[in-house]
Every structure is written in structure tokens, then in C-alpha cells.
Design a protein that fits this description.
Length: 209
């Protein structure tokens, strides 16, 4: 099974509580989601390999470490993943960004890809797929399928809040994908919303209904 990393850093948990609050408006909500994503990126990138280099400080030459040629792609699931991707890009500005858009077919209820634009060298890059909510797991699993079809092998998923059902579905469909979340909530309701969750992340990010 793919490993699940629950990131419980106090700063992340504090900011997560504020975005759960129904009284938090779109501007503050967007800023906090971006900040949380930046903080979570520290854990997602913890296993990046390092190599030793020599630099000259104002005092003397020194041996120091840099990331060892790691090529990264950050791919938000439209539209709610966009703000999270911006937060990660602040930490990894050399990363390239792709986008994937999905909608649910009203007849089959299956996710359908309507947009996918990835870096040309995506096969050579490790990917961080971002979506604020991992609810049923259907959209994330479908997005990973579409991405794998384009040759990407090393994929990590970052979400703010997950439902146990979504985690289980993703582990079943993609046992090779590591999952990073800031909270695993109680359950899904009959409409597929996470309880207690934070509502519809896209609507709260962009002030839509």
C-alpha cells in the first residue's frame, strides 16, 4: 500500500483551523491555503537527494549541500489546486507546472479529462499532484491514471484534508503513490462531502457558489 503521511505541524494545524471556519472569507482563505501548501512542501520534499559542492563564503571555502539535480513538476487539479500549487512554487521556483482538469460525467458519474497540459519532459520529472480535498478519491485516482498514461512514474499527492474513504480508494488504485495530508477527517456524507471538512474548497477559494 502507498504510504500516508499525516503532517501535524502546529503552524499547519493552526492555519487549517482558520480555513475550516465558515466565517473566513475568500481573501484570507486563499492566503492561508497557499501558506499551508508551502509549509507542507517541506515534508513532501524531505527525501530529495543531496550532493556536496564547494562554495566560497566571505571567510573561507566550504563544502555544502545542494539538491542533486532533482527535476520536479507541480500539477494542480483544476481549479481548487491552483492556489496550493502557487504556494509550492514559492519554495521550489525551478519546478515546472502542469495542469489537469476533470469533470464528472452526469450519466456514468465517471471522471472525464477535459484539459491536460504537462511539461514536455514530464517523463523525467517527479510529480507533486495537488488538490485541497481528497474526498471519494475518484478525481485524484483518475488524474493519476491520465498522468501515468503520459509516462510519469514517481507521483506524490498533496491534499489539505482527506476522508478515510478517499485514502483507502487511492491506496487501492495507486499503491505506488505517496499521500501527504494535514488532516484525515471522520467520513463522507451522502453527497460526497468530507465531514467536518471545510465545505467546497473551490467555491471558498474563488468566492463562487
Amino acid at each position: 500500500m502507498g504510504s500516508v503521511h499525516l503532517i501535524e505541524h502546529p503552524l499547519i494545524q493552526h492555519k487549517l483551523t482558520i480555513i475550516r471556519d465558515v466565517a473566513t472569507g475568500p481573501k484570507e482563505f486563499r492566503e492561508l491555503v497557499e501558506e499551508i501548501a508551502t509549509l507542507m512542501a517541506y515534508e513532501v520534499t524531505r527525501d530529495f537527494p543531496l550532493q556536496e559542492v564547494e562554495v566560497e563564503t566571505p571567510i573561507a571555502k566550504a563544502k555544502a549541500k545542494v539538491i542533486s539535480g532533482k527535476k520536479i513538476a507541480i500539477v494542480p487539479i483544476l481549479r481548487a489546486g491552483l492556489v496550493m500549487a502557487d504556494g509550492i512554487m514559492k519554495l521550489i521556483p525551478a519546478a515546472k507546472m502542469g495542469h489537469i482538469g476533470l469533470y464528472r460525467d452526469p450519466n456514468t458519474l465517471q471522471p472525464v479529462e477535459y484539459y491536460c497540459k504537462l511539461p514536455m519532459d514530464i517523463q523525467e520529472r517527479d510529480m507533486i499532484l495537488v488538490d485541497p480535498m481528497l474526498a471519494t478519491g475518484g478525481s485524484a485516482s483518475a488524474a493519476i491514471n491520465f498522468i501515468k498514461q503520459r509516462g510519469t512514474k514517481n507521483i506524490k499527492l498533496m491534499s489539505l484534508i482527506a476522508a478515510p474513504e478517499g485514502v483507502a480508494q487511492l491506496q487501492k488504485d495507486h499503491p505506488d503513490v505517496e499521500i501527504f495530508v494535514a488532516a484525515i477527517d471522520e467520513r463522507l456524507d451522502s453527497h460526497g462531502y468530507i465531514i467536518p471538512g471545510l465545505g467546497d474548497a473551490g467555491d471558498r477559494l474563488f468566492g463562487t457558489k
